[in-house]
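Quick question, first post here. What does this chain look like in 3D?
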Amino acid sequence: MTQLALLLPYALPQKEMARDLMRELKTPALATLLGRGDLTEHLAFDGFARSLPHETWLARQFGLGSTGDTSPAAAHNAMTAYGLPSADGTWFILQPVHLHIARDHLVLTDTQQLQLAEEDARSLFEVIQPLFAETGQTLLYGDAQTWFLRADELSALQTSTPGAACGHNIDIWMPKGEKARDWRRLQNEVQMHWHAHPTNEAREMRGLKPVNSVWLWGATSSGNAAPAQKFEETFSLSTGRNPLIGAELRQRAVSSAAELLATHPQRGLLTLESLIAPAMAGDWSEWLMRLQAMEGIWFAPLLEALKNGQLDQLSLTLSNNTALSTITSSKSSLRKFWRKASLTRLAP
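> Answer (accepted):
Ran it through. Tokens below.
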């Protein structure tokens, strides 16, 4: 059976904007898939959850144990993808970030805006690696935006994904629990080491944001069960690694439904993340333009693939920061002519 799951983070607009946005969209294929498909899942999330709905969903698909009390246990999975050893101890994902001042608190900037090149990342990494070594902790490099820290003594910390914390007062989403003060002290030392660092000064001269802090999340301890994966292959618009996606799966970059269908996926997952940035920035005209563009590139060809038997099943998982819905379509569901093609499920 040929099945494809399409994950669209932030395809659900905020409720106060949804009706107006739906009136502007001209996406008949998407309307057919949403209107005639079966609603197979709908979840509401706490606005203060430590991971976003689509992150929680991904963690569940790959057996990463997301409880809501802390971020998904993604470190081991991600390290395997980078070919790094993680057999012993407790490992965290550590990401370089930019914090900016808003009135009387600090806000985490969207990590996609950081534009951190490998050369800059390596320079900053090498400055703080000895700092962690002095405390008996091991810091390893994955890529420019993904590092790994072994810190067994911090295993009880409750942490949040950068996505959940982005755009908010970080005090709410900072690590909590035993040893939280120890982590905050170490984080402050990192910030001092990077303050006025030549790499950051050069970045600011180029109009880029300075890298002025790190974000800790995704703790995985040795002995955790291996992920149980529901997909055989994953696809995205880039080859960038997602820490929440199964490490041993082949990750392919595809640019269109036609390219994806040519691979004949049996149980595939396609993630389209282009709606995240405009939704988080509140740029709804850009959000509209990007979702509208998906009609011809993705929705219409995938609908046709269902009709002609290339696909047996297509599920669309749509989310925002507090809700997630999955609508599943098949050739038989498309025959349910009494179900009207509609975008109303964009406003759950």
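Residues 12 and 346 are 5 Å apart (CA to CA).
The chain has two domains: 3-59+229-346, 65-221.
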